[in-house]
Amino acid sequence: MLYIGIIFLLVFLDQISKYEIDTWLVEGETFPILGEFFHLTYVKNRGIAFGMFQGKLDIISILTIVVIFGLGFYFFKNRNKFSVIEKLGYSFILGGAIGNIIDRIYRGFVIDMIDFRGIWVFVFNLADVWINIGVILIIVDSLLDSKRKKKD
């Protein structure tokens, strides 16, 4: 199935990026890409988004696994009802969630490296990007669906 392939590709890209950062940099080290606006910075995140729940890795991991299985079951059970945009959205969310849970289980933390200092202080990774893209795609699909229903 195409969407399983997309999920695997997203997980692969996320894990490769984390492996490369772990190989090239040490924790706390930063490498400027675009002046002071964009850096690659090695951060070990032992929490979830925006550094919340630091040190609660066991609870976070269990809840994440439950969500992955629940969302995966819902997605694959209902995939024939979803639009292409919605299927892509779920694929991105699952790819991102799986990428981060691999880190939590394998490393005991999530490697973050994308550091847009010109925008905010948080450092994140490709898995986080995938999850956000997925959510945006599902919202866009919902808005388009609402518009279509109003036309009819």
TrEMBL record:
Query: Which organism's genome codes for this protein?
Result: Cetobacterium somerae ATCC BAA-474
Query: What does UniProt list as catalytic?
Result: 112, 128
Kindly provide the name given to this protein in its UniProt entry.
Answer: Lipoprotein signal peptidase
GO term, biological process aspect, one: proteolysis
Q: Kindly list the GO molecular function terms attached to this UniProt entry.
A: aspartic-type endopeptidase activity
One GO location term (cellular component) = plasma membrane
Q: Does the keyword Protease apply?
A: yes
Pfam families the UniProt entry points to: Peptidase_A8
Keywords, A to Z?
Aspartyl protease, Cell membrane, Hydrolase, Membrane, Protease, Transmembrane, Transmembrane helix
Q: Broadest EC class?
A: hydrolase
Q: Could you tell me what reaction this enzyme catalyses?
A: Release of signal peptides from bacterial membrane prolipoproteins. Hydrolyzes -Xaa-Yaa-Zaa-|-(S,diacylglyceryl)Cys-, in which Xaa is hydrophobic (preferably Leu), and Yaa (Ala or Ser) and Zaa (Gly or Ala) have small, neutral side chains
Q: Which gene name belongs to this protein?
A: lspA
Q: In which pathway does it act?
A: Protein modification; lipoprotein biosynthesis (signal peptide cleavage)
Q: Where in the cell is it found?
A: Cell membrane
Q: Which InterPro entries match?
A: Peptidase_A8
Identify the EC number(s). Answer: 3.4.23.36
Q: How does it sit in the membrane?
A: Multi-pass membrane protein
Protein purpose: This protein specifically catalyzes the removal of signal peptides from prolipoproteins.
The record's similarity note reads: Belongs to the peptidase A8 family.
Q: Where are the transmembrane segments?
A: 59-76, 88-106, 118-144
Q: Which domain of life is it from?
A: Bacteria
